[in-house]
Amino acid sequence: MRGQARSHPQRIDDSGPKPGSATLEGHGDVSFRPIRPVRSYERIVEQIEEAIVEGRLRDGDFLPSEREMMSQFSVSRSTVREAMRVLESSGLVRSRPGNPNGAEVLGLSTVALRKTVDRLVMGRRVRLVDLIHFRMLMESSANMLAARLRTHEDLVAMETALEEMRAAMPRGYEAFSAADVRFHALVAQASGNALIQMFNEVVHDVVLGMIASKIAGSQEGTSTMELSLLHHADVLEAIRAKDAPRAGRIARENLFEYYGVLLPPEDRTAVRLLLDAQALG
Questions:
Q1: What domain range includes position 233?
Q2: Does the pLDDT at position 84 exceed 70?
Q3: Which residues on neighbouring strands pair with residue 94, listed in sequence order?
Q4: pLDDT tens-place string over residues 112-164
Q5: Number of domains composing the chain
Q6: Whole-angstrom distance between the N-terminal and C-terminal Cα of the chain?
Q7: How far apart, in whole angstroms, are the C-alpha atoms of residue 176 and residue 81?
Q8: Are residues 157 and 244 in the same domain?
Q9: Chain Cα centroid distance, residue 59
Q10: Same domain flag for 63 and 174
């Protein structure tokens, strides 16, 4: 018809972005995927985690009962139970069968971090030599900070832990290790660094779990405990004297002497290189 624009078929360009993806001009292969709807139980987990992080839920508090949770969140029983399962696996809450209250809040802990490190070890992504390297760096820093920042109360607590280690020796390696953990926790606490405290607990426990059977079942178990006791006494004296460089050096040397014998030759050489490099620094 006269006066009407003539229509033309539009050409289809097959080279454009496909459904479910998008590209950004000037950004190469950047692409996006369709979003995933969030499930109801994840929303419950998010709200409870947020309340714990903000301090509105504290250690020892109890969540509402399962029935109350169903009502407050307007969800089914199975949804509440799935949310509780996720929170328990994260170490944030603990459910006790038969308890009329809801799940107990455990707060922010190192449980989830410990599980992650355990999985990395099981998957061989992290080896014993990696953990020893990390402990050499972390514990030398903790010792140096503790030497500068320790209080009289810190020293008294460390002395008590050292005596507990000595008293635990006749009871075997497991009891000795528990007292050893307490000593290291006190040094980490005296450092004033929250991350050092958390990673000290996790990595120390993982390493002990990897080597406990080797040491506990060996004839050298007693001599190993005696050597460890001497090392800890040296650390305490350096911290007491506020000698930070010496406190840090003792940690690195002690860890190499204590754990180096458990490593294959190539890994022992790698740890020695770190020890030598720090000594030169």
A1: 112-280
A2: yes
A3: 104
A4: 788 889 889 999 899 999 999 999 999 999 999 999 999 999 999 999 999 99
A5: 2
A6: 89
A7: 40
A8: yes
A9: 19
A10: no
Residues in the chain: 281
Residue 76 has a pLDDT of 94
Average pLDDT, the chain: 83
In-domain check, residue 66 = yes
Which are the contacts of 111, defined by CB distance < 8 A and separation ≥ 6? 90, 91
CATH code: domain of residue 56: 1.10.10.10
Q: Using one digit for the tens of pLDDT, what is the confidence trace for 38-54?
A: 789 999 999 999 998 88
CA separation for the pair 24, 40 (Å, rounded): 32
Q: Are residues 61 and 91 in the same domain?
A: yes
Q: Is 187 exposed, middle or buried (0-12, 13-18, 19+ CB in 10 A)?
A: buried
Residues 154 and 254 in one domain: yes
> Is 269 contained in some domain?
yes
The reported pTM is 0.68
* HEC per residue, the chain: CCCCCCCCCCCCCCCCCCCCCCCCCCCCCCCCCCCCCCCHHHHHHHHHHHHHHCCCCCCCCECCCHHHHHHHHCCCHHHHHHHHHHHHHCCCEECCCCCCCCCEECCCCCHHHHHHHHHHHHCCCCCHHHHHHHHHHHHHHHHHHHHHHCCHHHHHHHHHHHHHHHHHHHHCHHHHHHHHHHHHHHHHHHHCCHHHHHHHHHHHHHHHHHHHHHHHCCCCHHHHHHHHHHHHHHHHHHHHCCCHHHHHHHHHHHHHHHHHHHCCHHHHHHHHHHHHHHHHC
